[in-house]
Amino acid sequence: MLTEKKELKDVPLDDLIPYARNPRKNDDAVLKIKESLREFGFVKNSVTVDENMQLITGHTTVKAMKSLGWSVCPEVTQVFGLTESEKKAYRIADNRLGEIASWDIDLLRMEFYDLSEDNYDINTLGFEDTVREEIMKSVELPEEEKEFTEEIVKGMNIKKTQCPECGHEFPI
């Protein structure tokens, strides 16, 4: 059971000991984490070590930092009191739990569209090119194009129905 937690600053990367039996294969993710670190910096502390400075979480982040030439990790959470079984279980849970979440593709598409409109490089978001392109394929029309399309539809005298929950009208 966790008995103590410390937030360490500017920890030399060489002081962080990788867990030799880490079951997560993370080499393919290093490039994406590296791009994220380059773009945003170390915004969220994802590196956790035990009392002996052995990594519990953050293996990929540490590899990415090293590949960028960093010599220190800006923040590390050090935990005390966990049993070896708790450390192993947390390593697995930390990696697995993020995989369970899913994306609302329509909302994600809108976010991608907004970022693209702002000329933001969406290549830095961690999505493979093919996945990102598939998401962007069916981007909603900009508001001015929607209004133009609605004017054409009005002129065609098409019957419509209204959604009882949101009030949006749909052609039928």
The count of domains is 2
Biggest sheet overview = 4 strands, mixed
The number of helices is 6
CATH topology of the largest domain: Conserved hypothetical protein from pyrococcus furiosus pfu- 392566-001, ParB domain
Shape: elongated
Radius of gyration from the CA trace? Answer: 23 Å
Annotated CATH architecture of the largest domain: Alpha-Beta Complex
- Measured by DSSP, the beta-strand proportion falls in 15-25%
Tell me the total number of β-strands.
6
What number is the mean pLDDT?
86
Unreliable parts: none
Helix-strand string: EHEEHEHHHHEE
Structural class: alpha+beta
Please give the CATH class of the largest domain: Alpha Beta
- The CA-CA distance between the termini, in Å, is 60 Å
Share in helix: 40-55%
CATH superfamily of the largest domain: Conserved hypothetical protein from pyrococcus furiosus pfu- 392566-001, ParB domain
Strand order in the largest sheet: 1-4-2-3
Secondary structure layout plus pairing:
Elements: E1 4-12, H1 27-40, E2 48-49, E3 55-57, H2 59-67, E4 72-80, H3 84-100, H4 105-117, H5 129-137, H6 143-155, E5 160-162, E6 169-171
Helix pairs in contact: 1-2
